Amino acid sequence: MDYFNETIDSLHTKLVNKDITAEELTKDTLQKIHDKETNLNAYVTVNDDAVKDAAKVDADGIKGNLSGIPIAIKDNILTEGLLTTASSKILSNFMPVYNATVTEKLNAAGAINVGKTNLDEFAMGSSTETSYYGTSHNAWDYTKVPGGSSGGSAAAVASGDAIAALGTDTGGSIRQPASFNGIFGIKPTYGRVSRWGVIAFASSLDQVGVMSKRVEDSAEVLSTISGHDVHDSTSSEKEVPDYRANLNKDMHGVKIAVPKEFWDEGTDPKVLEQIDAALDVYKKLGATVEQVSLPTLKHAVEVYYVIASSEASSNLQRYDGVRYGFRAKDVKNIKELFVNSRSEGFGDEVKRRIMLGTFALSAGAYDAYFKKAAEVRTIFINELSDVLSKYNLIAGPVTTTTAFGINEKIDDPVAMYMNDILTIPANLAGLPAASVPAGLADGMPVGLQLMANKFDEQSIFNAAYALQEENKFYEQIPTALKGED
Amino acid sequence: MISKDEILHVAELANLKFKDDEVDSFVDQLDKIVSMASNLSTVDTDGIEPTYHMGDTSTVFRADEGVHTQTREQMLENVPEVQDNLIKVPTIVDKEDDE
């Protein structure tokens, strides 16, 4: 089974009509995953036991739309009894004893977890190259990165291994890989989805979201995983809309702002060509498109890396080799246990961020770096909310280039960080944002980014759906996969 | 400029250690990253309140009742070394320092 011509709806119909059982669907999916792993390395753990879960769904009967539907889960989201590593050596032996709330909600809906997808270690990276389990590969060109940190989820969906996958987005970790792989990916409003059981990177920025080939499938899954959770006091009590049922592709009267800085940040002209074409589609469909300015955008990367790294340095203090995870051998005392376990257990990128964060929070640097970044964050939030008080959506490219080559940027952290400049704004302000396939540049996918007001995911889904129905990008099979099968 | 001594001090605070050759490359890379972050000083933030968190600022109350969702056995499942149902760690008080 591959998912190029399927939607959750079409699979649901087949399951209800008994054209296929959930067990058969899951077996087929797992076989496909195993066949493609050599080329993609999209998964840290393939959940072969999922066949049993599917058999149980068959026995209980197909109920809701997600019942019996195979979905992949990023490996920084806890799955009870299934290894969860955050792609780090320090958690390489970690077996969760409870589920993340999002996992629990998918299970309750009858979805089948077919495996845990590869990511940059602790979601820190933009290429999946920092994973302890090796890099994943782009489904369009195996010599290129799939993006990150949700690179495994993106590669799995783009290659037809999974109809949908969960990702997490701290600075663009769903949208950038979605863009690089020619799929849809949405990061919802901060607080829309519970973070309980999601391995923390930067608590004021992290959010779980969804990736799929089709907009309607992410809409379905996002409604399922959203909502208030007593375990996460930052999760919102707002009612969860049925995004799928409310999909509406009418763009008349929709006001779209395009920040001129998105065009100025050295963005590849071939990428911009695809974005301009997508904006023309919106104009044709009746939307108004106007240029605006976000002058503080040039500082977004600086603000992000100071804040994200500071929060990470605090969150990652818990990895000390005492209660779980990797423990260093042959240590003389408790201090050495902490230091050796952490030094041997964390990879270079994680150490770099812990070091930057610890520095930014240290006595001499706190005001100049951490507090200053938090103040500039406020200015930036105000700029964005000013634009969104006048417009329904902000649109622009997701990334300045298409997917880059494996090993191309990994030794230059600053160049790698600059890669996230266009996705970071949504996280700093807690806004929902998505990447929608817009077209190809030099044979590689380009994503259009759409941002909306807090809790207005529906406007993003609607606009994404409108573009999808015009360009039908989902009909394109990734280049690297052609000729296989 | 970030000095090697500063890097070693921060590593100490972060409970990390680096091999000698690693320290030099970290000095170089962190220096570039900190230089980038130093651009923030050019932004006028007089009178601007910092944003430290994104959640609702209202306090959340719940009944003061313990909720036990995992057993002791489950809690100990991931512990690297267990003895007599307790987490085992190396010496906390260094005997040589005491004596």
From TrEMBL, chain A:
GO terms under cellular component: glutamyl-tRNA(Gln) amidotransferase complex
Annotated catalysed reactions: L-glutamyl-tRNA(Gln) + L-glutamine + ATP + H2O = L-glutaminyl-tRNA(Gln) + L-glutamate + ADP + phosphate + H(+)
Signal peptide positions on this chain: none
InterPro entries xrefs: Amidase, Amidase_CS, Amidase_dom, AS_sf, GatA
Active site: K74, S149, S173
GO MF annotations, alphabetized: ATP binding; glutaminyl-tRNA synthase (glutamine-hydrolyzing) activity; transferase activity
Enzyme kind, highest EC tier: ligase
PROSITE patterns for the chain: AMIDASES
GO biological process: translation
Record function comment: Allows the formation of correctly charged Gln-tRNA(Gln) through the transamidation of misacylated Glu-tRNA(Gln) in organisms which lack glutaminyl-tRNA synthetase. The reaction takes place in the presence of glutamine and ATP through an activated gamma-phospho-Glu-tRNA(Gln).
Self-association state and partner proteins as the record states: Heterotrimer of A, B and C subunits.
HAMAP family per record: GatA
PANTHER family: GLUTAMYL-TRNA(GLN) AMIDOTRANSFERASE SUBUNIT A, TRANSAMIDASE
Name of the molecule in the record: Glutamyl-tRNA(Gln) amidotransferase subunit A
From TrEMBL, chain B:
Enzyme Commission no: 6.3.5.-
Top-level taxon of origin: Bacteria
Keywords: ATP-binding, Ligase, Nucleotide-binding, Protein biosynthesis, Transferase
Gene Ontology terms: biological process: glutaminyl-tRNAGln biosynthesis via transamidation; regulation of translational fidelity; translation
GO MF assignments: asparaginyl-tRNA synthase (glutamine-hydrolyzing) activity; ATP binding; glutaminyl-tRNA synthase (glutamine-hydrolyzing) activity; transferase activity
Assembly and interaction partners: Heterotrimer of A, B and C subunits.
Protein name: Aspartyl/glutamyl-tRNA(Asn/Gln) amidotransferase subunit C
Organism: Companilactobacillus ginsenosidimutans
